[in-house]
Each structure stands twice: as C-alpha cells, then as structure tokens.
Specification:
The complex is a heterodimer. Chain A is mostly beta strands. Chain A has strands at residues 3-10, 13-20, 27-32, 37-43, 51-57, 61-67, 105-106, 109-110, 113-115, 121-123, 128-134, 142-147, 150-154, 162-163, 184-190, 198-203, 206-210, 218-219, 240-246, 249-257, 261-264, 271-273, 283-288, 296-300, 316-319, 327-329, 347-349, 357-360, 366-369, 377-380, 386-394. In chain A, the strands form 9 sheets. Chain A has a 4-stranded antiparallel beta sheet with strand order 3-2-1-31, with no helix packed on it. In chain B, strands 1, 2, 3, 4, 5 and 6 form a 6-stranded mixed beta sheet that branches. Chain B is globular and about 35 Å long. Classes of the chains: A mainly beta, B alpha+beta. The interface between A and B is medium-sized, with 21 and 23 residues.
C-alpha cells in the first residue's frame, strides 16, 4: 500500500483526506459538490480509483457522482464531459439519478404502501440514497440503499438503477414504519465468502438477509428486544442503527441498535446482547478491526433525544472479546465539553497493520487512529457536519 | 439568435448556481431553443433535452411533478403555480426577458 484515502461526506460537500501509510500527515482536498449533502461515498474494492458518491439536496433531489481517478475529477455516470449524453432520438442515454420503485405486482402484492406514523398506509416515495455499496468483484456493480426503504442495483457503473424489489415486497413490508430520521436502507453488507449473500438494515424495520443476491429476503431480528414497539420481540419494527462484519468471519455480525449492542454467531439467526459495561448502549456506529475479527469498536451516545456523548466525553469503546467487556479509548479525544454526534455511516477501518480507525462528527471533526484506537488525532477540525466516513488503502 | 423562426423560439433561461454546475454552463443565462408554443412545460422539456443531466432535478422523472422548492419566474411574475401549458409572456418568447428557474428560499 502506498497511501490511505479517507472519503468524507458532509452536509455541505465531500472531502478527501490523503496520507501515506504512516497516517500522520494528511492532505485535505475539497469541498467537492459544495453546498450539497453527501450522504455517502465509497470506492470499489477491486478498483480503488472508482469512487461513487450520493449527492442530494432538498431543492434539486438526488444526483449520483462517480470518479474514475481516485476523486480528482467527477461526473454523473453517463454524462462524462466529451461523451454523448443523448442518443440519435434525442433521448438521454442514461438516467443515473432515477430511482424508480417497481410498482408491478410482486407475487400478487402491489408494492405501493407502508405504514405511516398514524397507522394508515402511505405511498413509498423516493427521497435520497443513504448508502452506496460497490460490488466486491465488479467495479460497475453497486448496491444503493435508499429512503423510503428500498434496495437498488446498478450493473453499468451507475448509469441506470433497478430496484431489487423483493426486499420491499417482503410480506412484512406493509408493516415497516419510519423512525424520526425517516425510513431508509442504511446498511448493506456483501459477503465475500458466500457470494449472493447480502445483509441490509432498515430504520425502523430491522435487519434482513438474502442468500440469493436479493431475490428473496428473510428478517433476521430474533433475539432483538425493543421496548419502543408494542411487541418488543416482533419480527420487524426494530430500529437497527448499524451492522458490521469481519470478512473472514462472515457468520459473526455486530449490531448497534437504538439501545443495545448485539452479536450473532449464525448469520443473524439469533442475536444476543453484548452491551456489557458500556456507559450507554445507545449509539450509531459500530465497526470491526481489520485483522482481529473479535475486536469491535462503538461510540456510546446518550439518549433519549440528547444524542451526544455521555458526560461530554468523546470516548471510543473497544472490545477485544467480541463484546461484553469494553475499554474506553480516550487518548487524543476531547474529554470535556464535547457534545457532537457520530452518525451511523461515519466510522471506518482501514486494512493496514496496525489497523487504522476513523470517524467523523456532526461538529465537523474527523478523528483517526493509526494504532488500533490506542491514540487519536484530529485529522481535520472544522468541516461541515459529517454524514459518512469511508477509507481506502490505495496501492 | 433570440426570438421566433420556423416554429422554433430561442429564449433565455436563468438557472440557479447548482444546476449551472451540473449542466456545466458557466454563464448564469443560457440560450435555449423551444419547439412550438412557449409554455412552462415546453421550456422545461427543451431544457432537459438539451441538458439531460438536469432530468429529475427540477421535475420528478416520470410524473414531471415540479420539485417542491423550485420556482419559475418570468417578467416579474410567479409562474410556479400556473397551468403548465399557459403561454409565457411575449418578452420571454422574443428573448427580451429571461425565464428564471429559482431555488426557493428554504433554509440553510
């Protein structure tokens, strides 16, 4: 590896932080797409220079951006400068920002409504792309998790998107309900050791697994307990905030739920709580060390509604035992008067040894550790509110 | 050249900053050829045909429903809520005044 690239999506644009593998001196590039919300950016595992970004605004809707040169230049897929944008009939060749729900009858069920706050049925309406998950094998294939909750897929580098509608068409789909932040597919995990296996998480429906590349789905919420729904052990309705997996141990998943940190050892068939001695079992991010599948990181957040670190102390908690026993990591992090939040897509780990951990805050700081979390440094301090952080090791 | 010729009209359109960036047009005002009668819909159809990367940013893709925080002004009047097939003022058709696509004031 020659360099490390941290991709930061913020409320007002994208930033790219670059360092050599020592990870001590950083270059900050950006803002890209200034003024737009960048919910997520992620690079292809098989072509690190291929990066996808979800760009959106309340005024002008959704845009997908792509870079083929590691973030130096960007274009909307299908609209690269110098290439034709329309066919001979004058029609656009591509519609890279069109996320059209499949409204055909799936297995006899119209995929048109879900439960609204007042208990009535409400039409599914596309709002934005929350998460982009590039394929593990093909740089042109990407999965997109969107609000209102649905999963889309492109196989042409983002030029066009097709809904994998069996997820939304699951028999429980009509029961799904938005949380305060909306109803979105925010987590997508692809399993390298089990091709065709996809995990997704939806607020506030729960976790789902497909073993056939999205053709069928199964809720995997057994063991979760959520006191904010009438039946705390219901099949769906759980507000899952984030799921993480180590690629070498794909049946072991860790979950940060809206209260409770959970673990499964059987691909989601049964979850057990591993919150242990955390000062708060509420939070958004969760991630797994790149070389140690049993080393897990969370950032406890205080709730109800405060959504800042307990006692104003920004602490990453690390468990080396796969949960239950947690140690506070504080060296280099503010230990007083810190009232930021860390959103669900705003933590990432690199693949170097020692493992690097990165997270971004709603206060605009991006912190990094190049020693597995023992010490931390603020890479940047004053970005717009951070929505997402991803990291790439660049050859 | 601005104005009408052979069923086609060259008008001027003002785009907001972010849409100018997407369309990669440096100037605030662009010239746009509109086929047939110059209505709001005809202008938007021509705009999306000329700059297909703007499809979905002003109107929804399939329904062509205007996005909530986009406004259309012409000759000091608000054409946002009027019928989409209402003919725009002569000063728009002859290029004297621009058709304005505006991002509404709607928070930060």
């Amino acid at each position: 590896m020659k360099a490390v690239r941290v991709l930061v999506g913020t409320k007002k644009g994208a930033f790219i932080l670059t360092s050599d593998t020592k990870r001590s001196k950083w270059t900050v590039d950006g803002p890209f797409f200034a003024g737009w919300e960048i919910y997520h950016m992620k690079g292809s595992p098989v072509d690190p220079n291929r990066i996808y970004a979800s760009q959106s605004s309340g005024w002008f809707g959704q845009i997908i951006q792509r870079s083929d040169d590691g973030g130096k230049t960007w274009f909307q897929p299908g609209f690269k400068e110098g290439e034709p944008t329309t066919g001979g009939d004058g029609m656009p060749l591509t519609e890279s920002n069109k996320f059209a729900y499949n409204t055909s009858d799936g297995k006899g069920k119209p995929l048109t409504t879900h439960q609204w706050y007042d208990g009535t049925q409400h039409p599914w309406e596309f709002k934005r792309v929350w998460h982009l998950e590039p394929s593990l094998t093909d740089p042109d294939t990407v999965y997109a998790g969107v609000e209102d909750a649905a999963l889309f897929k492109t196989t042409d580098g983002g030029r066009s998107w097709t809904e994998l509608s069996a997820l939304r068409g699951h028999r429980t789909g009509e029961q799904w309900t938005p949380g305060a932040g909306g109803m979105a597919v925010h987590t997508i995990i692809l399993d390298k050791m089990n091709p065709g296996r996809i995990y997704v998480a939806i607020s506030a429906a729960g976790a789902f697994r497909s073993d056939d590349d999205g053709k069928t789905w199964k809720p995997i919420n057994k063991g979760l307990s959520s006191e904010y729904i009438p039946d705390p052990h219901a099949e769906v309705g759980h507000c899952v905030h984030r799921i993480a997996m180590h690629p070498a141990k794909p049946d072991v998943l860790f979950m940060q739920k809206h209260w409770d940190v959970m673990r499964t050892d059987n691909a989601g068939e049964l979850w057990t709580e591993v919150s242990g001695n955390l000062p708060s079992d509420f939070g958004f991010v969760i991630d797994v060390h790149a070389q140690e599948p049993n080393t897990v990181y969370v950032i406890p957040i205080k709730s109800d509604s405060e959504h800042f670190p307990p006692e104003g102390k920004l602490r990453v908690y690390r468990s080396r035992t796969g949960g239950n026993e947690w140690e506070a990591l504080t060296n280099g992090l503010p230990q007083k008067d810190c009232y930021v939040n860390i959103l669900r897509d705003a933590m990432a780990v690199d693949t170097l040894d020692p493992c690097g951990i990165y997270f971004g805050t709603t206060g605009g700081q991006v912190y990094g550790s190049s020693d597995g979390g023992d010490t931390w440094n603020a890479i940047v301090q004053n970005l717009p509110s951070v929505c997402s952080v991803e990291v790439q090791a660049v050859p | 050249m601005l104005g009408r010729s052979a069923g086609r009209t060259m008008i001027r359109v003002v785009l907001p900053y972010h849409l100018r960036n997407l369309a990669r047009v440096g100037s605030e005002k662009i010239q746009l050829e509109v086929a047939g009668t110059v209505t709001v819909n005809a202008v938007l159809d021509a705009l999306e045909a000329r700059y297909p990367m703007l499809a979905g940013t002003i109107r929804e893709h399939d329904t062509k429903k205007r996005r909530a925080f986009v406004r259309f002004f012409a000759c000091g009047e608000d054409f946002t809520m009027v019928a989409e097939d209402k003919v725009l003022p002569e000063k728009i058709s002859n290029g004297e005044e621009p058709f304005m696509v505006v991002g509404a004031i709607a928070g930060g």
